[in-house]
Amino acid sequence: MKKKVLVGMSGGLDSAVTSLLLKKQGYEVVGVFFALSGADESVAERQAADLAQKLDIKFEVYDGRELFQKNVLTKLLSAYEKGMTPNPCILCNPSVKFKLLFFLAEQKAIPYVATGHYARIVEEESGPAIARGVDEKKDQSYMLYRLPREWLSSIVFPLGDLRKEEVREIAKSFLPEWVVQKKESQDVCFAPEGLDDFLNFHLSDKKTCQPGSIMDESGKEIGTHNGLWRYTIGQRKGLGLPGGPWFVVSKNIVHNILRVSRKKELSSLRIWCEAPVMYRYLTEGAFYMAEHRYRTRPFSVMIESVTEQAMVVRGVEICPVVAPGQSLVLYNKDVVCGGGIIISSEEVSPCQ
């Protein structure tokens, strides 16, 4: 009897090749398209259905809009209103996308689920863990660090050992030309009009949408911002300030002030995180490489303290400025060891 796998299909190249590879490996593949955002997803839904038909696999559509509104959009807007910069994919993966995949798989007695993420599942002494995909430019392990460990043994990532160019070459032989040539969307899935317009519509009456002062490190007013939610810590472009470059270093929500500095990096940081996830037992004094944002250069940190509720790390070297709401993900080589959601930071001297 063939092993069954439920594949999340988006209508794009990666999930189509995922389905193709699993079928070639002998799986009985069932594809599912999740209607999530409330935006017009009819084109993507039709494309996913067409690809499933081309691959001769079962296919269905599931309405997950209520769950997406509750677990992603509501939390996203709340975070932006507080001046944070959340990552919607990190919110969505454990609480919507994979949650629905496992819910449906259990209903259908399907033992495995799969997606087109560029990541790998590896076996550690302590159990399964998420690891980087071999394509450094496409690696999505950062986005997946909050998946519960008990799910990992039932997840398949066929693209984790492939580079994007190889995926496209595979598609050329088996899939329609339109999907091979399809450009990757740079927009968030729930806001085809763009994130700025989406947030402006939903937050227009909030304080974080109101103009305010831009101040340098000395407290001198050097410009005016257009609403704090439009800016993220570390941002350089779009500030409209003379004598740059300038970088956003903090946001004062109470007084509606955006603070900037000429320093892109800090001597070192102490970073506070909430809701930590641990794939390994994280101990005080242990060293890891950390990523503070998707596709950024890792930097070395030491854990100062960690509990089930919070984690504090300190930089070992020069650190980038970090944005509250983003995630700090800890790695040992290519393997995800844990991480947490950044809530604050302060500049300190490097630990030795």
How would you characterize the overall build of this protein?
This protein has 352 residues and is an alpha/beta fold. The protein is built from seven helices and 19 strands. The protein has helices spanning 13-24, 42-55, 65-81, 88-107, 164-174, 177-180, 195-203; strands spanning 4-8, 28-35, 58-63, 112-114, 119-124, 127-132, 155-156, 212-215, 221-225, 247-252, 257-261, 265-266, 269-278, 287-291, 299-306, 310-315, 319-320, 327-332, 335-347. A hairpin with a 4-residue loop joins β10 (247-252) and β11. α1 crosses α5 and α3 (65-81) packs antiparallel against α4. The chain starts with a strand and ends in a 5-residue tail after the last strand. The model has no long low-confidence stretch (mean pLDDT 92). One of its GO terms (cellular component) is cytoplasm. Residues 290-342 form the tRNA-specific 2-thiouridylase MnmA-like C-terminal domain. It holds the Pfam family tRNA_Me_trans_C. Belongs to the MnmA/TRMU family.
In short:
The chain is of the alpha/beta class.
Please write out the topology.
Elements: E1 4-8, H1 13-24, E2 28-35, H2 42-55, E3 58-63, H3 65-81, H4 88-107, E4 112-114, E5 119-124, E6 127-132, E7 155-156, H5 164-174, H6 177-180, H7 195-203, E8 212-215, E9 221-225, E10 247-252, E11 257-261, E12 265-266, E13 269-278, E14 287-291, E15 299-306, E16 310-315, E17 319-320, E18 327-332, E19 335-347
Parallel strand pairs: 1-2, 1-4, 2-3, 4-7, 8-11
Antiparallel strand pairs: 5-6, 8-9, 10-11, 12-17, 13-16, 13-19, 14-15, 14-18, 15-16, 18-19
Helix pairs in contact: 1-5, 3-4
